[in-house]
What we know:
This protein is α+β, with helices and mostly antiparallel strands and about 450 residues long. It contains 15 helices and 23 strands. A hairpin with a 5-residue loop joins strand 17 and strand 18. The longest helix is centred in the middle third of the chain and has 21 residues, at about 230-250. The two termini are about 25 Å apart. The structure holds glycyl-adenosine-5'-phosphate. Glycyl-adenosine-5'-phosphate binds near residues 214, 222 and 287.
Amino acid sequence: MDNNLTMDKLVALCKSRGFVFPGSEIYGGFANTWDFGPVGVELKNNIKRAWWKRFVQEDPLTYGVDAAILMNPTVWEASGHVASFGDPKMDCKKCKQRFRADTLVENHSKGLVSAEAMTNEELMQYIEKHHICCPHCGGFDWTPIRKFNPMFVTSRGTLEDEADKVYLRPETCQGEYVNFLNVQRTARAKVPFAIAQIGKSFRNEITPGNFLFRTIEFEQMELQMFCHENDSMNFYSNYKERALKFAEDLGLSADHLRFHDHDKLAHYAKAACDIQYLFPIGWQELNGIHHRGTWDLSRHQQYSGKSMLYLDPFTNEKFLPNVIEYSIGADRLTLAILCQAYQEEKLENGETRVVMHFHPAIAPYKVAILPLQKNLSDKAKEVYSLLSKEFMCDYDEAGSIGKRYRRQDEIGTPFAVTIDFDTLDDQTVTIRDRDSMEQIRLKIDDLIQYISSKIKFN
Ligand code: GAP
């Protein structure tokens, strides 16, 4: 990551290069919603694919699902979201701004205090003891702390009454719990096994902001490992390590990542930890790994009336599996990757280039095809049609070759293939490496193998 990177700089690059646009922009926007553009959608899809490959495709213990966003409302009673999901909010009486009390505490302590499991009384005590003032107006005149339920509500029938009330899911994992029996039966899965899914979640956040960091609509990549209690701490440690390695393998630097073990836990939890990333706004949660005990399955057993007990065919023991959850936001991870990749580099000729050093496996385009002159475009289009069967390719014939390289650097394309007059004679092209800017000559016939060998994610 470039030390000079600010969130404003990143937002500007994302907007000008087609990564991310403000949501509903032509109508003046819609706060804290963002639309992924042609380049951004490729990046995010590649990140999601890399997660799925690592945690589902390559793991014989894990099965994928894609559950409905709208669920039977009783699901949210069982999960505890209707009664107690919610952020502790408080208003500044002076300027009328609303804040999350736990965020005020965590920001004040620079992340040293974990406020997640603090009661409203404990939060208020801390705020008074440390005289935490309103970040907006500097006043110290707070309302009492109240719970604010951030679930979006909609209605199912044609009449908007209480009976028709449904929720937009605030997390994807409930779709995994409610399919525990279905997956176990159809996949003939034996505990331990995991269910994973990637999908949209919605939260009416009190303090959204910081670009993609906290939005009201976002994607989660969640995995629930169902296991025997005796194995549960091993799985917990194992997922901590695997989650960290995944983040590093995608290119997040080790010195920008750290574990943050929770000292206070939800009453049912046996252990909980975040992996934090050093964003330009400071250390913040990237993902969570939680040991949830038997809480989720026991609640769904109670509310649905269906037994969630598992009969171990080897030991004949009947038990309710424990759950280890690994949960990461696809948009938040995309933001971390954008921050990490950004670099302003001084060139020998005195110019500066902005380059996004994405791991080639997740780069939006793998290769750009650039005819040196417009009258080489027929040959260049031939090469484009060959390579685009294998990779996402960009094609650009407008402007000087230097400008075209700069544009590809800014969207993080790892390779640029230049078609020149020699190409017509000997069927070779120049291929330029984004990071080293070195160029070599290759036969067109060798391009697919060369590029494929450089963009693997293992
Ligand atoms: N099922 C557990 C769960 O949802 P969480 O800590 O609330 O736990 C998990 O969310 C992850 O989802 C977070 O670590 C973060 O990466 C992402 N996330 C949560 N709220 C978000 C928001 N409002 N905007 C973007 N990402 C969010």
